[in-house]
UniProtKB/TrEMBL annotation:
Record bears the keyword Membrane: yes
Protein name: Alpha/beta hydrolase
Entry keyword annotation includes Cytoplasm: no
TM ranges: 37-57, 69-87
Taxonomic classification: Bacteria, Pseudomonadati, Pseudomonadota, Gammaproteobacteria, Nevskiales
Keywords noted in UniProt: Hydrolase, Membrane, Transmembrane, Transmembrane helix
Highest taxon, organism lineage: Bacteria
GO MF annotations, alphabetized: hydrolase activity
Length: 473
C-alpha cells in the first residue's frame, strides 16, 4: 500500500485568535436584533453554532468540529437572514452580513490549520477560495451531525466483530490474496428497461438483480444480504442511435444516486450531447432507489464500520456486472470511467480489476477510507475503539481487500488521470496524493473545494484530456 503523503512544516500558531470576534459579533447581532418567536426561530441555530465556535477559538481549540460549526453557523445565519428581513428589517440585514463574514472566515481558518502536504497545491488566500472551503465545512457539519456512530453496547460488539472479521480474512487467505476474495459476476438476466427523459434528452433506467452475496464466512454477511432494496441494481443509460460510440461510466459520490444530483454533476448536455459519448451511470449500493435508510447512503460510511467491507465488495461486483451487461450487448465496446469523491474511490478500485478500460478519471478521489473516517471520529469513540482493539491502522488492514491502493491499476499508467481541490475539506489533499503516488501519475489541481467541482474549469479539461488521449476525439 502507498505511503502516506509527506507533511510540510505546519504554519506557526497564533498567540491570540482575534478572528473569534467575528462569529461572536454575528451571534450578538442575532441576540440583540429582534424579539418574538419568529425571530428566535431564525436566530436559534446560528446563535448556538456561532457562540460555540467563538468560545472555542478564544480557548485556542482548533478541533475539526469547531470549524464545521463555525461555517454552519455562518451559513445558516446568512440564509435565515432572508426570512428574518420581514421581521427585523435592518437588524436582520446586519446580522446576516456579519454571519456571511463569519462563514468566509471559517473557511480561511480551517484551511490555515489544515496540515500541508508535499506535492499539493497551496490554497490561495482569496475570498472565493475561503467561501468554497466554508461550504465544504458546512456540509461536513451536516454529515458528521447525522452520522450514526456506534455507541454503548453496539460499539463494543462492533469492535469484537472487527477482530473476528480480521481473523476470517486471514484464515481464508483473502487478506493476502485479494484476487481470490473477489468473485467475477456474469452478465445479468431479467433486465428491465424503462424509458425516461431529462431536459429534452431521452435515456433508459435499467434495473436487474445484482446477484451479489457476501462471503458467508464473513461476520454480518446474512444481515447484509437481507437488506430489501439494495439487491436490485440500477443504471441510467444515455445512448446515441446509429453506429456504436464510446461509453463513459460515471460513478457518483456519497449520498448521491438521485437523478437530479447525478445529472448535475455528470451533465448529459455536455458529456452526451456535446462530446457525443454514450453514458452509463450506475447507482452504488445503499444509494438512490437502493437506500435502506431515510437518506441516500445511510449505513455506507456511517453506522457499523464493518458494513463498509460488504458495501465496497458489492460496489466492485456491481460495477463489473454493469460492464458485463454492456459488453454482452455491445462486444468490443470502448469504455472509460469517471468517478467523483466516493465514486473516484470506486473508479480506482475498478481499475484494479479491469485492464480493458480505455481510461480512468479520479475526481477529488477518496483513497483511504480509514483515514477519512478516523479524521472525523469523536475522540471519545476513537479511544474506546482503540481500547477494544480497533485502531485506524487495524481498520485499514480489514479494508485492504477493497482498497484501490492494495493492488496495481491494470490499465496503462498513461490512461490514468487525477484532479483534486487545493482547499478540499471533505477529501483532503493527502487522498489524491496517495493515489497519485500509487499510480505514478500527476494531480491536476484547482483552486477550490470539494463542492465547487461543478464550477471548476480543470474538471472538464481533465475529462476532455482523457477522452482525447484515448483517441475518442
Amino acid at each position: 500500500m502507498s505511503q502516506p503523503a509527506a507533511h510540510l512544516p505546519q504554519r506557526p500558531p497564533r498567540a491570540f485568535e482575534w478572528r473569534a470576534f467575528i462569529p461572536l459579533s454575528a451571534a450578538i447581532a442575532w441576540l440583540g436584533g429582534g424579539s418574538g418567536w419568529a425571530w428566535w426561530l431564525c436566530a436559534a441555530l446560528p446563535v448556538a453554532y456561532l457562540l460555540t465556535a467563538s468560545v472555542a477559538l478564544f480557548a485556542k481549540i482548533h478541533d475539526l468540529r469547531v470549524h464545521q460549526l463555525h461555517a454552519a453557523g455562518g451559513f445558516l445565519g446568512s440564509l435565515l437572514a432572508i426570512p428574518a428581513l420581514f421581521i427585523g428589517g435592518g437588524e436582520a440585514l446586519f446580522a446576516g452580513a456579519l454571519s456571511a463574514w463569519a462563514f468566509v472566515t471559517a473557511g480561511r481558518i480551517a484551511v490555515e490549520y489544515e496540515p500541508r502536504y508535499h506535492g499539493a497545491s497551496e490554497p490561495e488566500a482569496r475570498l472565493s477560495v475561503d467561501a468554497k472551503a466554508a461550504l465544504d465545512e458546512t456540509v461536513l457539519a451536516y454529515f458528521v451531525g447525522v452520522a450514526k456512530v456506534p455507541a454503548g453496547s453496539s460499539a463494543e460488539a462492533m469492535c469484537l466483530e472487527a477482530l473476528r472479521l480480521e481473523a476470517v480474512l486471514k484464515e481464508q487467505g483473502w487478506a493476502g490474496d485479494i484476487d481470490s476474495y473477489h468473485q467475477t459476476p456474469r452478465a445479468p438476466e431479467a433486465v428491465v428497461a424503462e424509458p425516461q427523459r431529462w431536459r429534452g434528452i431521452d435515456y433508459e433506467r435499467i434495473s436487474y438483480p445484482s446477484g451479489f452475496l457476501p462471503r458467508p464466512e464473513l461476520p454480518g454477511a446474512a444481515a447484509w444480504a437481507a437488506h430489501p432494496a439494495n439487491p436490485r441494481m440500477q443504471l441510467r443509460v444515455f445512448r446515441h442511435g446509429g453506429a456504436p460510440r464510446p461509453w463513459l461510466m460515471c460513478i457518483h459520490g456519497y449520498r448521491m444516486g438521485a437523478d437530479w444530483m447525478d445529472f448535475s454533476l455528470f451533465d448529459p448536455g455536455w458529456l452526451h450531447r456535446k462530446l457525443g459519448l454514450n453514458l452509463i451511470l450506475p447507482v452504488l449500493p445503499l444509494h438512490g432507489l437502493r437506500r435502506i435508510g431515510r437518506q441516500s447512503g445511510d449505513h455506507y460510511l456511517d453506522g457499523d464500520l464493518l458494513d463498509l467491507l460488504h458495501a465496497q465488495t458489492q460496489a466492485l461486483w456491481d460495477l463489473r456486472k454493469a460492464l458485463a451487461w454492456l459488453r454482452d450487448r455491445e462486444p468490443g465496446a470502448q469504455v472509460g470511467v469517471y468517478g467523483v469523491s466516493l465514486g473516484g474511490y470506486n473508479a480506482s478500485l475498478l481499475a484494479t480489476a479491469d485492464a480493458d478500460l480505455s481510461f480512468v478519471v479520479g475526481g477529488v478521489p477518496l483513497a483511504d477510507v480509514a483515514r477519512a473516517l478516523w479524521r472525523n471520529l469523536p475522540q471519545v469513540h476513537e479511544r474506546f475503539y482503540a481500547q477494544h482493539g480497533l485502531s485506524e491502522a487495524r481498520y485499514r488492514d480489514i479494508l485492504r481487500p477493497v482498497s484501490p491502493l492494495a493492488r496495481p491499476a491494470l490499465p496503462a499508467a498513461e490512461r490514468l488521470h487525477l484532479f483534486a481541490a487545493s482547499a478540499d475539506r471533505l477529501v483532503t489533499p493527502d487522498h489524491p496524493l496517495k493515489l497519485s503516488a500509487h499510480w505514478q501519475r500527476p494531480v491536476h489541481w484547482y483552486q477550490g473545494s470539494h463542492l465547487s467541482i461543478r464550477r471548476e474549469r480543470v474538471t472538464r479539461e481533465v475529462v476532455e484530456l482523457a477522452v482525447k488521449s484515448a483517441g475518442w476525439k
